[in-house]
Design brief:
This protein has helices at residues 4-9, 24-37, 87-111, 134-143, 155-166; strands spanning 12-14, 42-53, 56-67, 72-81, 115-123, 147-151. By secondary structure, it is α/β, with parallel strands linked by helices. α3 (87-111) packs parallel to α4.
């Protein structure tokens, strides 16, 4: 599990590469207030994906703000692990990171009546390797009281975080939801 210091120590940025200088909870609060003042209704989806490159597992966690019928935007944190892991262990670590961020933000989101979903980059089809972690991931997320989404409905993990980890966080495309 990631402790509170690790959570606050994660380096977050916007899709265009601009660093988020505030602690992530403060940045989310400021974002919620700005979006509400602009008349937007939001949903937040949190997901993590990873990619193995040699002996390193690279991770990306995203906080996706979905504006009802008006697109969205995201905050991103990338990090690496040199620990050797099976695919199942990596899937569970992805879910754990998403749950930890969700847990850190859930009271704030509740205060602002913002719906929260935790997205897992795990396939519901048993013929895929990532399916080995579906029961544990679903139990963990639901057990923490969060809404669980898996592929193909887990766009925060399967598309947004996937893009950020596969492309090493390069900001050379425009993302629209």
């Amino acid at each position: 599990m990631m402790n509170h210091d690790a959570l606050t120590g994660m380096k977050w940025r916007r899709f265009d590469g601009r660093q988020i200088e505030l602690p992530i909870a403060d940045a989310v609060r400021k974002t919620l207030l700005r979006e509400k003042a602009a008349g937007h209704r939001l949903k937040v989806c949190i997901g993590t994906d990873s990619q193995v490159r040699g002996k390193v597992s690279e991770f990306a966690t995203v906080i996706v703000f979905v504006r009802e019928k008006k697109g969205g935007f995201m905050f991103i944190a990338n990090y690496k692990s040199h620990q050797k892991m099976t695919i199942r262990e990596r899937m569970i670590l992805e879910v754990a990171r998403s749950v930890e961020i969700s847990y850190a933000l859930c009271n704030l989101l509740d205060e602002h009546n913002v719906e929260l979903e935790v997205h897992a980059d795990i396939n519901t089809d048993p013929s895929f390797e990532s399916n080995t972690a579906i029961k544990e991931a679903m139990g963990y997320i639901l057990g923490m009281g969060f809404v669980f989404k898996a592929k193909p409905d887990a766009f925060a993990a399967s598309y947004c975080a996937d893009w950020m980890v596969r492309n090493k966080g390069h900001q050379d495309v425009t993302w629209k939801h």
